[in-house]
Each structure stands twice: as structure tokens, then as C-alpha cells.
Amino acid sequence: xTTISTPTPTRPWLPSTKDKLxxxxxxxxxxxxxxxxxxxxxxxxxxxxxxxFFLLYMSLTAGLQYFARGSAAAxxxxxxxxxxxxxxxxVMPIASIIGTVVSKGYKGLHLGILTTDxxxxxxxxxxxxxxxxHAITGTLTLVVLALIMSVPIGILTALYLTxxxxxxxxxxxxxxxxxxxxxxxxxxxxxxxxVLYPITKGYSGLMGALALTILMIPTVARTSQEVLKLIPxxxxxxxxxxxxxxxxxxxxxxxxxxxxxxxxxxxxxIARIAGETAPxxxxxxxxxxxxxxxxxxSIGSLPYYIWKSFNAGSPEAITxxxxxxxxxxxxxxxxxxxxxxxxxxxxxx
Amino acid sequence: xNESHESENKKMETTTPSSLADVANAKVQKAPGTRAxxxxxxxxxxxxxxxxxxxxxxxxxxxxxxxxxxxxxxxGCGKSTFIRTxxxxxxxxxxxxxxxxxxxxxxxxxxxxxDVTKIRLQIGMVFQKPNPFPSMTIGENVLSGLKLSxxxxxxxxxxxxxxLVRAGLWNEVKDRLGAxxxxxxxxxxxxxxxxxxxxxxxxxxxxxxxxSALDPGSTLRIEETIRELSDTMTIIIVTxxxxxxxxxxxxxxxxxxxxxxxxxxxxxxxxxxxxxxRDTRTENYVTGRFG
Lengths: 349, 291
Known about the structure:
The complex is a heterodimer of chains A (349) and B (291).
Chain A: H1 17-40, H2 46-69, H3 71-105, H4 133-164, H5 169-179, H6 184-200, H7 205-229, H8 233-241, H9 246-257, H10 259-273, H11 278-283, H12 302-312, H13 315-348
Helix pairs in contact in A: 1-2, 2-3, 3-13, 4-7, 4-10, 4-12, 6-7, 7-10, 8-9, 10-13, 12-13
Chain B: H1 2-14, H2 17-26, E1 41-50, E2 53-63, E3 68-72, H3 79-86, E4 96-104, E5 107-108, H4 116-122, E6 123-126, H5 138-142, H6 144-148, H7 156-166, H8 170-173, H9 186-198, E7 204-208, H10 216-229, E8 234-238, H11 242-248, E9 251-256, E10 263-269, H12 270-275, H13 280-286
Parallel strand pairs in B: 3-8, 3-9, 6-7, 7-8
Antiparallel strand pairs in B: 1-2, 1-4, 4-5, 9-10
């Protein structure tokens, strides 16, 4: 009887140590060459480094592949590096923005920003005076009001387009698409002239939220529609074949199946409006005091606060603006995380 | 059971008409219409269109209560369209149209004023691809028909167990009724869909190629289920598998489209279709000469 010896598991398709060392060598060579070229030529600045490095690295790897395996492999290596460059170029501005906001904004943070507003402080005062409470509560009020109005309308529109597919589907589809291109200042001016001047005759959170709703509906509707289209017709047929009406089938089967996608639609909607500034400048009045009444009187918001602080111009005011940006980004992040948790809770169980 | 099934399959490989007829004859023929389950289901002059495309022409078929009828024929001959006209699922396809009458206990399901959701409760359906509801657990899937049609039952647990037992799935899932339907294998999912259809107590069960996505073991389980169910309901099964038609059905209808709309060529007790078909086209099909 022979014993079968188990071979060691190997992964022959992965690059060998020699290949990795060679790639690392080319990577370092590109960096060194970039420095040398920038030093001896008139090219200057960060951009020159980036462009030269990518060009050198791409041509070096492509050249290596050309001599090792021919032109097809060279093209493959070239396109691979091009794709990598594209990905890096996408991430760079985002990382850069986050880095800048955090590094400049943290100086303006102190515990008082969560407990006080700007009613007793001017933007040019020392940082420790006043806080962001009015802006944070204002932004949350506006976002929540806009959510309450736009999510039902957006999802009902998506249901009309995917489930009912009525005779108005085509024009509605066209209008929703056109609506997603409406500049935010237009939404603001529309509410100003159609509601604020003729009816309420005064600033309020509701006016701002109405304009934000106009901006949010197309995002929610279009994303929800794409999600609902992905739900297989099998499920709708099964629901109806079990004696369900169309509404019962949609409510019990289609919407729950699309749940996490619909949450994404809401997240994208929040992302669309959280930092909107133009309509709020026209409609909310941007007070410096916490206003618990969303339906009457000026209400502050983070974008308004940032805009106002930048306009004040002193170093303290500029720092306040950066701090406001940081807080806005944190709030958006918290809302995203909350929505994501709500959306996946049932699946995780 | 397994042995006889294998020998049966070996015989099938030769696909001679006599071997298929042997299988069909070996089944105990049931006397149709002897059970008190209503007068059954009748179709009168069924035509179907998709847009201007006439896909099904003048089908007249009666289904006696408590029998299993297999519908066979090449792809595109209108078998699935035909059964979808029976429970009014045909109308869900944009541009669909139909003519004729579907009589359930003597009443036309297309008569004006008919509550279509009630019709679909009486005529259940199992689809080609297993389609359990992804957001529901196994137990919720079985009882989903009651919730969809807003019916209340007092003994939910009993009904749940009964349906899963009848669908032949109880022993495999009784300890994990709270798991998601998607965690089951394809064959188990299809039996879950059968259990789901049974929970609303249909009088007729339509099955549209229920085993086409399943392995032979699961297929065998579902065929056993069909035979057990036929004691209490009328079953119509569309299948491309002639051995399956021979194994499970009392009657067989042969559909064919010769360029134009699909037609029903011949319907007879299953043993006759496979041993002495009246129409040469039927004979050619069941002997594997075309299709």
C-alpha cells in the first residue's frame, strides 16, 4: 500500500518574487528619473512630477512587456497602467479635499460649537465665541423636511414608471430626466416667486426645504426606477398568481426586494441636497439663532454659515468657514452610515 | 424505487413508442371525475395573440377533476401561453389578447365582473424557474399567498406544516423555517414554490415546466409530489420531457405549430398517446423523429 503525499498548494499564476522585484525596480527607477528630469529641465511644480512619473512608468512597463512578450502584451500593460492612472486621478481630488477640509477645519472645532449659536458672536470674533448649533439644527431640519416631501413623491413616481407603465410614462420619464438638470438657483427662484412672495411673504425653513425637494425628487425617482427595474418579473408574476392585487404584490414583494437599493436612492438624494447653497441664500434668511420652528422665520444652515463666514473675511471667520465645512461633511457621513445600517439590518440578521 | 426508476430511464434512452407506452400503462389509471371536487375545468375555443401575432388557435380541452394532464410539444407551440390563459396571467404581457372561454365549475373566468384575484386563488401556478420571495423566510414564503390575498387563518402553524409535508419539503426545512428561501437548493426552492401555491388551497394547479431547471433527483421528488397532489386537485403540467409526461400524467395533450399559430393536435389518455397515437405528427413527435 502506497501512501499518497499531499503536495504543497502553490499559485503558479501569481507573479514570482523576481517579477515583483523587477516591477518595484521599475517603479523606483521612474521616481528617480522623474526627480532628475524635473531638476534639469525648466518643468516645475507638483503637476509636472505626477505627469512625468505616470508617463515614465507607463512607457517603461510597456517597453519591458514589448521585449519580453511582444506588442500585444505591451498594449495590455499600457492600458492596465492607464486604467490605474484613471482610478488614482479620481481618488486624488477626493482625498485632497477631505485632507484640506480636515487640516484647516479642525482648528475651528471646540465643544462650544455643539451648544451655542452665533446670536451673541460675530464671525470675526475669536474662535471660542459662539458656535454652530443654529446651522447644524437648521441643516438637519431642512434635510428632514425635504426627505419627508421628496421620498414618497420620488418612489411613487418610480412605481408609476416601472409598475403601472401608464400612458403618461414617456412624458414623465422625460420630465424627470430634464428636472435632474435644473440648476439649483432656478429651483430657489421658482419657490421665491411662486410661494414666498405671493403666499408666505417671509423666510422660513419650509421654503428652503421646498426648493431642496424640487432638486431631490428627480434623483430619488430615477435611482429608484433603476433599482425597481432590476427586480425580476418572475416575482411580480408569482405574487399576482397567488391572488395578490397589484398593490399588495408591490408592497409585499417588490418594495421589500428592492429595499437596499431604495435606501441607496435616498442616500443619493441626501447627497444631492445636503450642501446646496444657492436656494437657501434666497429662501431661508440664514439667521444666527437656533430656530426650532421650521415653518416661520429665518433659519440657519451650514452652507449659509460657510458662505457668510467666508464673506466676513477675517482669519477667524475663514477658520469658522472651514470648521463649518468639516461639520457638514461629518453630518453627511453620519446620515449615509445611518441609512446604510437601516437598509442592511434585516439582511445582516 | 430508485432501481425501477433507473431501469425505466434505460428503457427511455431507446425512445421507442412501445417503451413509453409501457411506462404509461404501468401507472394505475384513475377514473376521472369520480371525486366530489367540482366539475373541473373546461376550455372552449381558446385563441391567443401577442400584438398581431396569432400564437394559439382554437384549443378545446377538458380537464376532469382529480386528474393530471401533461401538455407536450416543441418549443413555441403555445403550451405555456395556453395555461397562462387559464389563470388569466396571459393578460400581464403587453399587447396580449385572447378569445374563447375558460370554464371553472361551469363559470367563465373571463366573464365581466369576475374577481380575477379569486380566480388565481382557485387556479394556482408553479413557474419554470423557482422564484421564492427573496425578502421572506421559508415559513413566510409558504404563507405569503394568504397575506397577498388578505385572508386570515387561525391555525397558521398547522397549515404551514401541512403544505410543506404535501410538497415533500417538511423534513428538510422543519428546523429552519426562519431561514431565507434563497438558502435552499434549486429543487428545494421549487418545492417551496409548490408549498406556497398549495397554501391558498387551489382547486387546479398549473405547472409550467416545473422541473426544467432541476437535477434528476429533485425532478423525481417533484414527480412524486405531483402524484400525491393529484388525489385532491386537478393538475396541468407543461413539460418537454416525454418520460415525465408518461410517468406522471393520466392524460396528454400534444401541441404543435406548423408555421402558423399553435394548435392542439391530439389529446387522449397518456398510454394511448404513447402507444397508438391517431395522428402521425403526434407519433413522429413522441418517437423523437422531430421536435
